[in-house]
Amino acid sequence: MKHYTEAIKRNPNDPKAYSNRAACYTKLGALPEGLKDAEKCIQLDPTFAKGYTRKGAIQFFMKEYDKALETYQEGLEHDPQNQELLDGVRRCVEQINKASRGDLSPEELKESQAKAMQDPDIQNFLTDPVIRQVLVDLQGNLNAAQQHMKNPLVMHKIQKLITSGIVQVK
Q1: Torsion sign, CA atoms 78, 84, 86, 91
Q2: What b/e readout covers 137-146, taking b as 16+ CB neighbours within 10 angstroms?
Q3: Cα separation, 162 vs 125, whole angstroms
Q4: Cα–Cα distance between 84 and 27 in angstroms, integer?
């Protein structure tokens, strides 16, 4: 760790040093610090795939599967054949699908819901009158709910509520 910190002091524009220190932070479980370094790595060199794999892995470990998926996909825009990025996408999709199917254990569901309720986006979705109406419609008026779901923004918000465990589909 100290060697990468020293390398950053000597050359603060070296994305590899930030990437390597992010990996060290990840191994130590210091995920917020690792995330900062991975983001700095990407900022310094947006084409360096390792920055995206580091950031995506940290987000995955933090159980922020939607964010990790976005990060991996962003990396694939720069390096479409990168196997680490492709594997990251696959792992995220598996976890998102697991939550969407309601296959989480009671402990996983409780943890997921608690984490989601700390997310400002989720909080905003739950206070949005349109989303509240869609949630009511999903319980009884499926035709109205289907009409709402034609709106991509509404669909995205509902999908995020489902993957976070706040809304369960049975």
Answers
A1: negative
A2: bbeeeeeebe
A3: 12
A4: 17
